[in-house]
Predict the 3D structure of the following.
Amino acid sequence: MQIYPSQCYRPVFRGDNSKNSCGAKIITEYRNENTKDIDIVPTIDVIRKINNEDKKVALAVEKEIPNIAKAVDVIAEQFKKGGRLYYFGAGTSGRLGVLDASECPPTFGVKPDMVQGIIAGGDRAIRNAVEGAEDNYDAGNNDAKVLGKDDVCVVISASGNPKYLMGVLDKAKDRGAKTIAITCNPKGAILNEADNGICVVVGPEAITGSSRMKAGTAQKMVLNMLSTGAMVKTGKTYENLMIDVMPTNLKLRDRASRIVSEIADVDKEYARQKLNDADWRVKTAITMIKGDMDKDEANELLEQNDGVLRKALNTLA
């Protein structure tokens, strides 16, 4: 199923030689009329100009909410089959994918291999520019060998044209993985090649071609929605609370205690005691309290309900 960019950009996406509304073939490289004097205005106006451009990002993302929601459903469905989520990108886009993936285990208590970020040029490229990495089709094709038929492959690029990602998508198809493209360019080639497309058209950057700015912000917002939305759909939250948080430091242990206290309606000290008995598993501690049962009984009840706390508690009602 192909999901197209926002309605107003479809003619641009479909036409081979047409120009976009800004008169440029690649919108991410077009000059911004609002910031041509950015090098001569006072500092406060430099910042205001950047801020004014940033204000446009959330509105651009809003236009793609239907496509983002469809992508979330695809990811959640594959998670339920035991599939994994892989982000692929080069430069800023790759780093954003690595960032989002690395935050999923502590936030949602998932295994590190459930959401992974792969950047063109390898881990060295996270901190250093690796020249030509985004132009290497073969490297993308090779990196994507990790994909399986139940996995989801998300390719991320402001321009939507890196050969590295075309190599990734070709291998993903061979492997039978679901594919999703995220770009800020309606003419990006990855939109044609992926099963599902998300095109957030943020317009020209404050500094021409610096896609780490608005385009990067847009990509980060979309990645937040994809991972968080899929985790919510698979029971990793109760209401808006992080019930699978891994309490690996004092701040997170305090948060875990507050979550148990609120959901189980007990004081914080009692919640902490039960968390200790439950090996600091938030869902287990809540189930122990609400069901008046021991740790093993609570874990068994959760397992019977696919680890979804709400379903487990409903059986106690």
